[in-house]
Amino acid sequence: MSTTVEGLKPDALDAWVGRTQNLEDDITRFPVRALAATLDTEDPSIAKEAVLPPLWHWLYFLPIHRPRSMRHDGHAQGGDFMPPVDLPRRVWAGSKFIWNLANPMRIGDRVRRISRIDSIMPKHGSSGQLVFVTIVHEFHNAKGLSLANEHTSAFREAAKDLGQSPKPVIADTEAAWHRVLTPDPVLLFRYSALTFNSHRIHYDHPYAREEEGYPAPLVQGPLISTLLMDLLHRHAPAAHVRRLQLKAMRPSFVGRPMHVRGTRNGDEVRLWAADDEGRLTMAATAEVDG
């Protein structure tokens, strides 16, 4: 399907669909220990060949770009593997995951990631032009496939009305599990450092406010997702996540209380995050064993 977003070159973008990339990385101990300390949770790397917790694969296969190849917002310009979408704002929209519980990634593994651009979809929303780029990642260790991940990024126009945000959805407050925390600049800094994320909306307050139209730096979507998985682990430590679907609903901001909640019904788990005004910011559903 050809893209029809004004100002973009349809054939040029469509040509990127199906493009692949192969990378290898070592699942080393230090990032795992550092994230455990950052989240104030137990250190899962004490045992040799410990299983990598769900979503902690984001500590590896990091985007290493030189300054000359980066956009004004801190992201890579695109053109190597990611398509060079000519829209200035990029955010994470959501992800789907399927874990092979019989063959998990472990500390010490050498892992190969096979990535493929699955689709490039233009849309026109209330905030203007958007392009959604979906990439499918497969993670293989020496024994075979460990994890499949469908990841969607959204490219957006420059902010027209400062402070503009999606219409809020009020989050449920009835939940079996509930934790309140306030993401501070240190938490955001450490998570961005561990994931080599230079996107300025997470640390540059003047940029976030004056150029992107946000009141404060944004909490990283993957960090919120990791906090939801941490909530599950705190209340159901024997559960092993087989499937997970995540959807980003609206931004969360540094220095403001965040509510993470969850409810389990058999092998199905519902997890969600809300801001200090009760608005839904992240929604997740998971299938678990144990």
Characterize this entry briefly.
This protein is of the alpha+beta class and 290 residues long. It is built from 5 helices and 10 strands.
Task: Give a description of the structure.
With 290 residues, the protein is α+β, with helices and mostly antiparallel strands. It has one domain (10-289): Thiol Ester Dehydrase, Chain A (Roll), CATH 3.10.129.10. Helix content is 16%, strand content 34%. Strands 1-3-4-5-2-7-10-9-8-6 form a ten-stranded antiparallel β-sheet, with helices on one face. A hairpin with a 5-residue loop joins β9 and β10. The longest helix has 15 residues, at 221-235. The radius of gyration is 19 Å and the shape is globular. The N and C termini lie far apart (42 Å).
Give the key terms.
290 residues, alpha+beta, Thiol Ester Dehydrase, Chain A, ten-stranded antiparallel sheet, 5 helices, 10 strands, disordered N terminus
User: Total number of helical segments?
Assistant: 5
How many domains?
1
**Unreliable stretches:** 1-7
What would the average pLDDT be, to the nearest integer?
89
In the CATH classification, which architecture applies? Roll
CATH first level: which class?
A: Alpha Beta
Helicity range of the residues?
10-25%
Strand-and-helix sequence, N→C? Answer: HEHEEEEEHHHEEEE
CATH topology value: Thiol Ester Dehydrase, Chain A
Topology summary:
Elements: H1 10-14, E1 20-26, H2 29-39, E2 89-99, E3 110-125, E4 128-141, E5 144-156, E6 177-181, H3 185-194, H4 205-210, H5 221-235, E7 240-248, E8 258-265, E9 268-274, E10 280-289
Antiparallel strand pairs: 1-3, 2-5, 2-7, 3-4, 4-5, 6-8, 7-10, 8-9, 9-10
Helix pairs in contact: 2-3
